[in-house]
Amino acid sequence: MSQPRIAVGGFLHETNTFAPSPATYEDFLRGGGAPPLSEGEAIFDAVANSNIGLCGFIDAPEARTWSLIPTLWTAASPSAHVTQDAFERIAARLLAAIDRAMPLDGVYLDLHGAMVTEHLDDGEGELIRRVRALVGDGVPIVVTLDLHGNVTPTMVEQADMLIAYRTYPHIDMAATGARCATAMARLLSGKSRPAKAFRQLDFLMPIAWQCTAQEPCRSLYAEVAAMESESLPSVSFLTGFPAADFADCGPCVVVYGTDPESADQAAGRLAARIAAQEPAFAGRVFEPEAGVREAMRLAESAARPVVIADTQDNPGAGGNSDTMGMLKALIACGAERAAIGNVFDSAAARAAHEAGVGAVVRLALGGHSGVEGDSPLEAEFTVEALSDGRFVAPGPYYGGGRLDMGPSACLRIGDVRVVVVSRKAQMADQAMYRSVGIEPLEQAILVNKSSVHFRADFAPIAETILVCAAPGPMAVDPADLPWQRLRPGIRTSPLGRPFVPVVEPA
Ligand SMILES: [Zn+2]
């Protein structure tokens, strides 16, 4: 075969159907915590040297021998539904670029797996279906998925292989792209297409307890990796994203094997192992002030910061990163040497920039997304530092990627410092504090608006990590969400109540 022609692209969104704001076309254009929407050759530069699936695919040794045809790559911060307008415009351009690239020997897509749009429950299933319809059955389609993907039967059916991350915090996004290149090479080598096996688990896993550095996921993911062999070329376990209200929400197992029987048996075995760990997907959650008091108590004898996860406002799960519950608790408890970030409030950042360093500004900070039980914090703040918000995030989660948080500031109230930003991105790198002059190592308490990703860069410097539940859109216990459309019988938390569909009154 002459040099294989592989079209590459990506379209990523994690949808929390309960979150306050949708993902619009503008959100994808800007990218937020991810690079902005790019097309053609520009996508190579956009994803270069970063922890992104496409970057890992491009840099894989196998891919060096292929002719890679760049199409389109885009991602937006997790939020409520992707608008119909955004999905259709982006999908049309991605499809048109693939069409222009034909004839092709393969297609690689960097997707998330938990995209719900205003008009489609299964964003990725529809996207892969359209790509399949365009390129035909003979062209292999290999897809990277986030470990939080809510995989559907359509996705399994339409793609040759779906291969998911194995770490949360996701420090292996690029590594998963590289595994997809290996899978693509196998498909191109003319061996028969692998048989597929798919099992959905029957309980939702709270994201705070999905961390793969802790049990039960640490052992389960070690097993997943150990299961792969010549006859089982890819084994994935996805913990799922338990905030998307549709029938295929939840964890699953996707296995590819040289024969249907061994794939099916392996999937069944793995699903049973995971099911047996159901009670272990649980842990302690503090109310805001109780969590702050516990952090202050621990900090008295600690040499390193006590880190609190403000998990229910995690912008990586659809939060707006602007709730004030934890900041109010820090102030109410009189916490000292404390810092919190990121608070997404572009008006506050602008006011700080206009006032200048050293000025005192009166603000109604945060609390703008209308989350029940939350409100802005009206108070005076001292502007301690200003920044254009552009910096490199060297920690393992952003992996050296360039971030652009827009105009940013450090605002101080009492002995609490607040990272205020103009663009939403998850507090998952120490550089986010340093970008506005806060040295995280010098703080007694750090409150991160994140559920798990922050652990990659903060666990090494943390005395301990506490999980707090201030009012926010990403329920720490999925059973608290107002579900309506899950599949009947799935438990909405580990060992929890089975879901009963809401019966519409006649
Ligand atoms: Zn994820």
TrEMBL record:
Function per UniProt: Involved in peptidolytic degradation of cyclic heptapeptide hepatotoxin microcystin (MC).
Annotated organism of origin: Salinicola socius
Cofactor descriptive note: Binds 1 zinc ion per subunit.
Cofactor(s), by name: Zn(2+)
Boundaries of every Microcystin LR degradation protein MlrC C-terminal domain copy: 308-485
Protein's name according to its UniProt entry: Microcystinase C
UniProt similarity note: Belongs to the peptidase M81 family.
Name of a matching Pfam family: MlrC_C
Keywords annotated in UniProt: Hydrolase, Metal-binding, Metalloprotease, Protease
Domain called Microcystin LR degradation protein MlrC N-terminal: residue spans: 5-296
A biological process from GO: proteolysis
InterPro entries tied to this protein: MlrC, MlrC_C, MlrC_N
One MF term in the entry's GO annotations: metallopeptidase activity
